[in-house]
Design brief:
The complex is a heterotrimer. By secondary structure, chain A is α/β, with parallel strands linked by helices. Chain A is 39% helix and 12% strand. Chain A has helices spanning 16-27, 38-57, 71-85, 99-110, 157-164, 185-188, 237-254, 257-273, 299-307, 328-332, 337-340, 354-378; strands at residues 65-68, 90-94, 114-118, 140-143, 169-173, 192-196, 207-211, 277-278, 289-293, 344-347. A seven-stranded mixed β-sheet of chain A has the order 1-7-6-5-4-2-3, sandwiched between helices. A three-stranded antiparallel β-sheet of chain A has the order 8-9-10. In chain A, helix 1 packs antiparallel against helix 7, helix 2 runs parallel beside helix 7 (237-254) and helix 8 (257-273) runs parallel beside helix 12. Chain A starts with 15 loop residues before the first helix and ends with a helix. Chain B has twelve helices and twelve strands. In chain B, 39% of the residues lie in helices and 14% in strands. In chain B, helix 1 (17-23) packs antiparallel against helix 7 and helix 2 (40-59) packs parallel to helix 7 (245-280). By secondary structure, chain C is α+β, with helices and mostly antiparallel strands. Chain C has one domain: Sufe protein. Chain: A (Alpha-Beta Complex), CATH 3.90.1010.10. Chain C has helices at 5-12, 64-77, 82-86, 90-97, 104-124, and strands at residues 27-34, 39-47, 53-61. In chain C, helix 2 crosses helix 5 (104-124). Chains A and B meet through helix 1, helix 2, helix 3, helix 4 and helix 7 of A and helix 1, helix 2, helix 3, helix 4 and helix 7 of B.
Chain lengths: 379, 403, 125
């Protein structure tokens, strides 16, 4: 299948098998999973089966998986829920985190709770020397994303957590890691982790917060007491089932990352030949993502130009594509404003072929040359 | 007739086939993140989301700009209650009012606010489930910032006088939130006339998918609220997080169908309700819970005295009903809603909620009546309380060996 | 909640439903529970001349597990001495019916009903 969609870190196509599993939910009469009759029990069973599949995909126990409505909710919940239990704790988060971690972290300051940014190195990885200032007598809560959504940079969470020791509570926004790299919650020794369905060929609107068995956390959303009392609201059955199916398939997807890396490397080689720059090129990165730019060409302008050819590609995080600010990820890595403004993100999915990349490169070349003519006139 | 018969529409409704059909293209071809503005995949999704927003707004006569998507009515209620309290309490004060018979999502959001220093009043309704307007007015204090009242009760189906309650809130400068999860498609809602500031909706109680809801936030006069989820700044900053386009489209379609069909549908359901009521009240010692006039016909909550609810549900397993709210069905406690009406514990323990809807037929109702008559008889044969009642023993005067 | 086949069997075909003459000196009546708690069990036993329980009857207001527990108990009691009857433990009832944890109290109630019926009988002697 050919596709000119190269924005798979924003959202992925839903796998046909996932769609089928969801359609079955909509066409069979399912009750409310909390109801005791056969309709409700069937729904409940589907939810629990999906929970096992999700848990298996991320190396966690089923009882450690709590369904939420989005990765953003999972992240907000972690920050908010931990702050309610530990108002005296100190919160730390990486400079390249998604706004759904950084904003709730900043909000904590409004209610008198300490939070601070951990700087990143030019590689995009956090500067671990920062952790020396952590006071062992404090409750320290650290949140670091496993894979950055824009640059694709991977944090060595296991090593970081080992160095921090068991006194530090650690959460990871692993939304971009699922299906891209091996993800083992218990092996990483994390205390909590956010994952999302629509980044892994599952439906939108369903995600999970994985919470280590025994970790004390308060809910974000109160009510009927679903999800063991930690996340109220009638379970989103069809989406949960779809998420479960997507997780089951995600293990298979990992095998395809070699192929994606070949495509990505081929793409980057050619981008450099065209005079482009690859951000975080030498850093440990996931194989589907390339964050690149052409000097003097505004990323947003290039994207609009490519759009006319039917190409879907983004400048960075989809959530912030309404604003014209340069990528906060690149700025945190010490990249100059103007260069950061040029950034474009390629994020591949299983459906992308070499022909797609060739077509894309052709159009990039065309548009870059055209845009450079304009800028040279302007200069 | 297909068994078991589903009569638990208040817990959740099946997804209407027309809704499912409308949703499917949006998880296949039309995929795309609605917030990705830079490519057409995103644009198509955005258009669909805005059309759905209009459908939701149309059902309640609101402006589409006043509709914020959420993951369901529970989140809407949490966002409304905590969001308003946090935004306005500095100026107005920290007193909040609700009704003891509200859904858990409202009650627990109130409890959470109490934990952080708010003072809450939980008004007890009249025995018919309705709020006494004078008592409501009397509960308002100068520092009352918010009142929250549900439009249609999920357990007993009574319709509150939202118009009068809203007017009182306006007079006293109290922000008024209404949980309308059980009301959409059942009662007419006109937000150009109703003095309501914020209103919660759910898709899956109105033949839409689970996991999607909405919050109406009035623009004139403008109501502000503190977001409970921060991030990409979706939904004008009131609610962040990538939204499921297919779910939103499903909710839009469900609400569109509701607007088109509710008047005919509700006439039909009223007939079924009356038929069920007539049949079941032929049984000795039954009590209808909730006002018989101010109610939606979709709900009939009845206590069958001297028969325990859970064993009755087991006995009538051909029909799927509940003993109250689905959310609390795991607990052994009798319904807190019925207790708030002043029902005795044994009547509360003996209650069954029948909730009917779009796919309920006359045949289903007749089957239910026949089954109930038979099984109530059988269980009363088994019941020591029925025996005592028949022997003329006053159960109120018996000293029970509590355990 | 999924009930075991044994609970369903006793619930659908309860054994020994009914009442014995509570004024009979050889009949002991135990009534335990309260309507407010959602279950009331009435258990009656009749002692034969040989000192063995020759009949047992019950009526129960309560959930399926409560009905099944009392039905099972009436079967267990027949042919037992009072001492043997008194030694019936709730765990045996719960185990036989495979009651889920939230329903263990039903078996406790059944054990209480046995004790109450025996006490009533003894008080008549």
């Amino acid at each position: 299948m050919s596709s000119l969609y190269f924005d798979n870190n924003a959202t992925t196509m839903v796998d046909p098998e996932v769609i089928q599993s969801m359609q079955e939910c909509w066409s069979s009469q399912l009750g409310n999973p909390s109801s005791n009759h056969s309709f409700g029990r069937k729904a409940h069973q589907l939810v629990e089966e999906a929970r096992i599949k999700v848990a298996n995909a991320v190396g966690a126990l089923p009882k450690e998986v709590f369904f939420t409505s989005s990765g953003s909710e999972s992240n907000n919940w972690f920050v908010n829920g931990m702050a309610k239990v530990n108002p005296d704790a100190k919160f730390f988060y990486g400079a390249t985190e998604h706004p759904c971690i950084s904003k709730p972290m900043q909000q904590l300051q409004n209610i008198g709770i300490f939070s601070e940014v951990i700087p990143v190195k030019t590689s995009g990885e956090v500067d671990e020397t920062f952790f020396k200032k952590l006071n062992k007598n404090d409750i320290n809560i650290v949140s670091l994303m496993y894979v950055n959504n824009e640059s694709g940079v991977i944090h060595d969470l296991k090593k970081i957590k080992e160095n921090l020791g068991s006194n530090v509570l650690m959460h990871s926004d692993a939304v971009q890691a699922l299906g891209k790299i091996k993800l083992e919650f218990n092996d990483l020794n994390l205390d909590a982790m956010s994952i999302s369905s629509h980044k892994v060929n599952g439906p939108q609107g369903i995600a999970a917060l994985v919470i280590k068995n025994g970790l004390d956390i308060e809910p974000l959303i109160y009510g009927g007491g679903q999800e063991s009392g930690l996340r109220s609201g009638t379970e989103n059955i069809a989406s949960i089932v779809g998420f479960g199916k997507a997780c089951e398939l995600a293990k298979e997807k990992l095998k395809k990352t070699v192929h994606l890396k070949e495509l990505r490397d081929f793409f980057e080689k050619n981008i450099k030949l065209l005079g482009g720059v690859i951000f975080a090129e030498a850093s440990p990165r996931v194989s589907n993502t390339s964050f690149f730019g052409f000097p003097n060409i505004d990323g947003a302008t290039l994207i609009t130009a490519l759009d006319k050819h039917g190409i879907g590609i983004a400048s960075g995080s989809a959530c912030s594509s309404n604003n014209k600010e340069p990528s906060h990820v690149l700025l945190a890595m010490g990249i100059e404003d103007q260069q950061a403004q040029s950034a474009v993100r390629l994020s591949l999915g299983d459906q992308n072929t070499k022909e797609d990349i060739v077509f894309l490169l052709e159009k990039i070349k065309l548009e870059v040359n055209r845009l450079l003519t304009y800028t040279s006139i302007l200069n | 007739m297909k068994l078991p018969i589903y009569m638990d529409y208040s817990a959740t409704t099946p997804v209407d086939k027309r809704v499912a059909e409308k949703m499917i293209p949006f998880i296949t071809e039309e995929f795309g993140n609605p917030a990705s503005r830079s490519h057409p995949y995103g644009w198509t999704a955005e258009k669909a989301v805005e059309e759905a927003r209009r459908h939701v707004a149309d059902l309640v006569n609101a402006d589409p700009k006043e509709i914020v998507w959420t993951s369901g009515a529970t989140e809407s209620n949490n966002l409304a209650i905590k969001g308003i309290a946090e935004f306005y309490s500095k100026d107005k004060g920290k007193h909040i009012i609700t009704i003891a018979t509200e859904h858990k999502a409202v009650i627990d959001a109130f409890r959470e606010l109490e934990r952080i220093g708010y003072e809450a009043t939980y008004l007890t309704p009249e025995p018919n489930g309705l709020i006494n307007i004078e008592k409501f007015k009397a509960a308002i204090r100068p520092d009352t910032v918010l009142a929250s009242v549900m439009f249609v009760n999920n357990e007993i189906g009574v319709i509150q006088d939202i118009h009068s309650l809203g007017n009182i809130c306006r007079e006293h400068n109290v922000i008024f939130h209404v949980d309308a999860a059980q009301a959409t498609g059942k009662v007419d809602i006109d937000l150009t006339k109703l003095p309501v500031d914020v209103m919660s909706f759910s898709a899956h109680k109105t033949y839409g998918p689970k996991g999607i809801g909405a919050l109406y936030v009035r623009r004139k006069p403008r109501i502000r609220l503190q977001a409970q989820m921060h991030g990409g700044g979706h939904e004008r900053g009131m609610r962040s997080g990538t939204l499921a386009t297919h779910q939103i489209v499903g909710m839009g379609e469900a609400f569109k169908i509701a607007k088109e069909e509710m008047h005919d549908e509700n006439k039909r359901i009223k007939k079924l309700h009356d038929q069920l009521l007539k049949g079941l009240t032929e049984i000795e010692e039954v009590y209808v819970n909730g006002d018989l006039n101010h109610r939606v016909p979709h709900n009939l909550n009845i206590s069958f005295n001297y028969v325990e609810g859970e064993s009755l549900i087991m006995a009538i397993k051909d029909i799927a009903v509940s003993s109250g709210s689905a959310c609390t069905s795991a607990s052994l406690e009798p319904s807190y809603v019925l207790r708030a009406l002043g029902r005795s514990d044994e009547l509360a323990h003996s209650s069954i909620r029948f909730s009917i809807g779009r796919y309920t037929t006359e045949e289903d109702i007749n089957h239910a009546i026949g089954l109930l008559k038979q099984k109530i008889g059988k269980l009363r044969e088994l019941s020591p309380l029925w025996e005592m009642f028949k022997d003329g023993v006053d159960l109120e005067k018996v000293e029970w060996a509590a355990h | 909640m999924a009930y075991s086949d044994k609970v369903l069997d006793h619930y659908e075909n309860p054994r020994n439903v009914g009442s014995l003459d509570k004024n009979d000196p050889n009949v002991g009546t135990g009534m335990v529970g309260a309507p407010a708690c959602g279950d009331v069990m009435k258990l009656q036993i009749k002692l034969g001349k040989n000192g063995l329980i020759e009949d047992a009857k019950f009526k129960t207001y309560g959930c399926g597990s409560a009905i099944a527990s009392s039905s099972l108990v009436t079967e267990m009691l027949k042919g037992k001495t009072l001492d043997e009857a008194e030694s019936i433990k709730n765990s045996a009832i719960a185990e036989e019916l495979a009651l889920p944890p939230v329903k263990i109290h039903c078996s406790v109630l059944a054990e209480d009903a046995i004790k109450a019926a025996i006490n009533d009988l003894k008080s008549k002697k």
